[in-house]
Task: inverse folding
């Protein structure tokens, strides 16, 4: 009684409830990562069968669909935030685009520094 009323502290949850919560959260995270991570790959697979679509076109389509998916994920996450859906959607999309651009630039920089011309021939 003193812990909750006077000190404002909640008693700890039982360990089995904590484990179930962690398991549920990890499964949700894995499923979201799997579903949203497949979007760029599936866009390449689906649109590569269309005649006349170049690799540059496929890259643009993949980037566009991924940006839309990130925006949708951010807009949905606004249900759990105090920010409006469009702000949260833009935030997640820009955050994802920044991460992707950084990864691309690091890969390009390493590739340029190592000079892999003729590798695999």
Result:
């Amino acid at each position: 009684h003193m812990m909750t009323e006077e000190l404002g502290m909640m008693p700890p949850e039982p360990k089995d409830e904590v484990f179930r919560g962690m398991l549920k959260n990890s499964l949700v995270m894995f499923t979201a990562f799997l579903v949203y991570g497949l979007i760029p790959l599936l866009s390449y697979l689906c649109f590569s069968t269309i005649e006349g679509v170049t690799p540059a076109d496929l890259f643009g389509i993949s980037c566009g669909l991924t940006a839309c998916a990130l925006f949708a994920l951010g807009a949905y996450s606004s249900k759990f935030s105090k920010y409006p859906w469009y702000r949260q959607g833009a935030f997640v999309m820009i955050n994802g685009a920044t991460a992707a651009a950084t990864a691309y630039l690091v890969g390009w920089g390493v590739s340029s520094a190592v000079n892999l011309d003729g590798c695999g021939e």
